[in-house]
Sequence to fold (383 residues):
Amino acid sequence: MKKAFAIAAFVALLCSCNSGSKATIEGEFAACPEKTVLLESTLASGAIVTDTITTSANGTFRLKLRLPEGESTFYNLRCENRSIPLIVSPGEKVVVHSVPGLIDGYTVGGSPESALVREVKNILAFGVAKLDSLTNLYNQTTARNLQQILNREYAEQYLAIKRSQIEFIVKNAGSLAAIYALNQRLPGDQSLFGGEKDIVYFRLVADEVAKNYPTSPYLAGLKAAIDHYDRQVEFSNRINEALEAEPANFPELEMADMYGKKHSLTAIQEGKVLLLDFWTIGDENSNFRNAELKELYEKYHDKGFEIYQISVDSSKPAWIETVQRQKLPWISVCDFKGANSIAVQLYGIGSVPQNFLIDRNGNIVARNAYGDDLAGELRRLMK
Fold:
C-alpha cells in the first residue's frame, strides 16, 4: 500500500492589526481554572500565537479578535495539553466547551466551519485509537502469522479512515474544513492524503472553495500543492521515458545519517550496484519490505550491493527509533523536511515507497522493483 507524505496546503496569512472583521470566541476549558489560553493562527511555517487570555476560576474565557483581511481564518485554541481547531468567519460568536479525557472532548457552536472541523477531527481520533490498539497488539507478539493478521487489520482500518475522510471531502468540498481534512496526519507523521491518486481531491476542493471563498489566502496553498504534484509527475514521466530509451544517470545526493555523518550517493555507488530506496516509517508494511531487503542485502552485500535508504519523515526521534528497532544494516539517511527534501525534489517523489536500482556504471536500470522483480534484477546485475 502506498503511503505518502504530507503536501502542505496552508499558506502564510497577510496579517493586519488594524483591518479585518471582528469575531469572538468564548467558552470553557473544564478543569482548567486560571490557566493561560493561547489562540494560534495556522500558517504554512507553523502556528503563530495571536492572542492569550487567562481563564476564570471555573475555566471560562472570552476572546475578541479581528480576522486578517476580513477572511475566514484557521485557528488553534490551546489550554495546557488540549487543543481545539477552529475556522472563524467574520461576525461569528464561537462558543466552545472542552472536557478532558474524552476522544471527542469538546463541543463548538456558532461556527459552521468549526463544526465541520470537529467532524473531521473525530473521524481521525476514533480511527487512530483503533490503529494504536492494533499497534500495541503487534508490538506485544513475535508470532509472524499474528503480526500478518494485525497488519491486514491495520491496513483495513487505515482504508476505513481514509474512506470516511473522502466521503466528508466530497460532501463538503466547498468548505474550508475540506482543506483541514486534506491535511490530516496519522501516527508516525504520515499524511493521509498526498498519494498519486489523491490529487483529484485537491483539485476538487480548490475548484469548490474558489466559489465560496474566492479571496481566501488558503486557495494559494491548494494551488501550490497541485502545481507541485504536476511538476513531480512531469519529472517522473521524463525518468520513465529515459529508462524506456536507455539507462539514465542518477542525480547526486549528499545526506546525513542519524549520527550526522554525510554520505555522498556517487561515492557510495562507485563500482557497486546501488538501490536508492525512498520510504516512510508510517507505512505499516515497511517492516516486511525491509525484512525482504535484509535478505537481499545479506546475500549480495559482499559482492558489491549497497542500499541508500532515504526516509521522507519529519520526526527525527521516531525515525531513529524505527531504524534502530528494525536493525537496518545499510545507509539510512533523512533531512526531516518531508515534501521539501532536496531528494524528493530531485527524484520527483510524489508518494512512497519508491526505489531506483542503479548499476555498476552509475545508470538507473529499474524503478520501483520489489519482491521477486528486485531479486531478479539483482541476480542479473550481480553476475
User: Anything to note?
Assistant: Residues 112-139 form the longest helix (28 residues). The chain is about 40% helix and 25% strand. Residues 171 and 178 are 9 Å apart (CA to CA).
